[in-house]
Amino acid sequence: MNEITIFAPATIANISCGFDVLGCCLDTVGDEMVVRKVPEKGVKISKIEGVDLPFESDKNVAGVAALALLNEFKKKLDFGFEIDIYKNIKPGSGIGSSAASAAGAVFAINELLNKPFSKLQLVEFARKGEELACGSPIADNVAPAIFGGFTLVKSTNPLNIIELPSLEGLYTTILHPQIEIKTEDSRTILPKKVALTDAVKQWANVGALVHALHTNDYNLFSESLTDFIVEPHRSKLIYGFDKVKESALKAGALGCGISGSGPSIFTFSKNHQIAENVANSLNSIYLKNNIPFKIYISKISTQGIKIINTK
Ligand code: HSE
């Protein structure tokens, strides 16, 4: 195989109660990337469409993640890799833009090298890209992009990712206000210490959410989607957050929260029809503002990154 085209999915990190540990993967929202072997050694970013991002490999999240992988590849290579990135996910959207690029690059190169690395190792490489993007080697977006479905980052040192089951037929509706919130900024505003009473409620929800996924319990899943710690601070950065949440829940959503570090707002629904109803309610709320926005509806993908084509 000399060339691979992949779909690099958007992801929802945190999922309300699981700051920096929970995440899930979208099925139809994401970027495309083409990675090919070329005679020149190393990694070259040859094309970026859709957004303005650095082409230098050591300044681009895809490049940094790819270089981290190649550093660990022990055999000598007499070729290098060229990466074309077609971005649909804007940076600073909260749906894992940098994670899609970083995870996509390492997944594709691993395929072109005949899969020498495990998924866990790919997450390890990809989170080097996250470190470049936001200053922290977070794994809660790259893990679901690579593993698919829902994931839990059990620990970061050593890295341990737990794959969780998904609920049957689960859909997400995402409202993406077209403003950029940098993850680094959105992390800086968070308190360094939290009240024990809030922590107790929060970890009870994480445990309950994991149980709900294992038992396909929609009610428990819905009841667990509350964030006592992060959302109260970050929601202030997102215009109309409370109204959006109220209207999504009224339209039948199982829950609603900030996707990753925002500004995107995610909701979950039991089926496509409810996800559409939620989309309509979010649309009518946000049309009243002067902020441009996009709405996405997607199934939760249990697959993660998808191979579109190989040559
Ligand atoms: N867990 C990270 C945060 C995800 O919320 O800052 C960033 O997308």
Give the structure's gist in a few sentences:
The protein has 311 residues and is of the alpha+beta class. The protein contains 10 helices and 11 strands.
What does this protein structure show overall?
The chain is of the alpha+beta class. It has two domains: 3-164 and 301-310, Ribosomal Protein S5, domain 2, CATH 3.30.230; 171-299, GHMP kinase, C-terminal domain (Alpha-Beta Plaits, 2-Layer Sandwich), CATH 3.30.70.890. 36% of the residues lie in helices and 27% in strands. It has ten helices and eleven strands. Strands 1, 2, 3, 4, 5, 6 and 11 form a seven-stranded mixed sheet that branches. A four-stranded antiparallel sheet has the order 8-9-7-10, with helices on both faces. A hairpin with a 2-residue loop joins strand 5 (150-156) and strand 6 (159-164). Helix 1 packs parallel to helix 2 (97-112), helix 1 packs across helix 3 and helix 2 (97-112) packs antiparallel against helix 3. The longest helix has 20 residues, at 196-215. The model has no long low-confidence stretch (mean pLDDT 97). Residues 13-14, 19-20, 138, 140-141, 183, 186-187, 260-261 line the site of L-homoserine (HSE).
